[in-house]
């Protein structure tokens, strides 16, 4: 059986009932998928913490956009 995609692994965290039984069984028995799932869970936790951060009135949207624009290569 193929390994489920990272999107399926993320769905396993967010909406486990939406993941096919075969994929759930595979992940439960596959060390490679369990390792990737650990990374997906870590990323989800980091994003959740970042979104929960109270920035108050000091939100610098223009600065954030400039940093994001500089970090993303232009096409």
Structural write-up:
This protein has 75 residues and is mainly α. The protein is built from 4 helices and no strands.
Low-confidence stretches at least 5 residues in length (pLDDT < 50)? Answer: none
Helix and strand element order: HHHH
Task: Give the C-alpha Rg.
Answer: 17 Å
Please tell me the overall pLDDT.
87
Query: Helix segment count?
Result: 4
Helix content: 55-70%
What's the overall geometry?
elongated
Count of β-strands: 0
Structural class: mainly alpha
How far do the termini sit from each other? 37 Å
> Could you give a short account of the major beta sheet?
none
Q: Which band does the percent of strand residues land in?
A: under 5%
Quick structural gist:
The protein is mainly α and 75 residues long. Helix content is 68%, strand content 0%.
Q: How do the helices and strands line up, and which of them pair or pack?
A:
Elements: H1 6-14, H2 21-29, H3 31-52, H4 61-71
Characteristic terms for this protein:
single chain; 75 residues; mainly alpha; 4 helices; elongated
């Amino acid at each position: 059986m193929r390994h489920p995609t990272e999107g399926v692994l993320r769905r396993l965290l967010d909406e486990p009932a939406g993941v096919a039984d075969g994929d759930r069984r595979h992940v439960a028995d596959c060390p490679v998928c369990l390792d990737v799932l650990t990374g997906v869970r870590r990323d989800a936790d980091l994003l959740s913490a970042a979104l929960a951060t109270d920035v108050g009135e000091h939100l610098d949207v223009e600065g954030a956009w400039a940093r994001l624009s500089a970090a993303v290569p232009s096409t």
